[in-house]
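Practice problem 4.
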């Protein structure tokens, strides 16, 4: 598989789980500490860590350390990339090739 497809899949994997969608919804109102996300998403520490790893690796979410706490926010760059990628992959080409049709 091409490496580019693996990178694209990471982005879409971020959106393929109810808990991750809930976390993204919580982050829409601004940066949150992991403890707040854990409480508001009703996830345990290991569950939250699992989902945050996927979100951060996708580039959609950024993290920063402050002492012993990790804070998360939606990445502006990751947001723009995800939107552009979805548009690119779902917009048909304007060029029609005759060999693409069944006979």
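Answer key:
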């Amino acid at each position: 598989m091409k490496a580019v497809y693996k990178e694209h899949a990471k982005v879409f994997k971020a959106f393929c789980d109810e808990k991750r969608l809930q976390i993204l919804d919580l982050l829409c109102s601004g940066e949150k500490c992991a403890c707040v996300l854990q409480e508001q998403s009703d996830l345990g520490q290991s569950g939250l860590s699992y989902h945050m790893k996927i979100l951060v690796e996708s580039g959609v979410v950024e993290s920063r350390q402050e002492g012993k706490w990790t804070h998360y926010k939606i990445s502006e760059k990751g947001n723009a990339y995800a939107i552009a990628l979805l548009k690119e992959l779902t917009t048909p080409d304007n060029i029609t090739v005759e060999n693409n049709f069944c006979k």
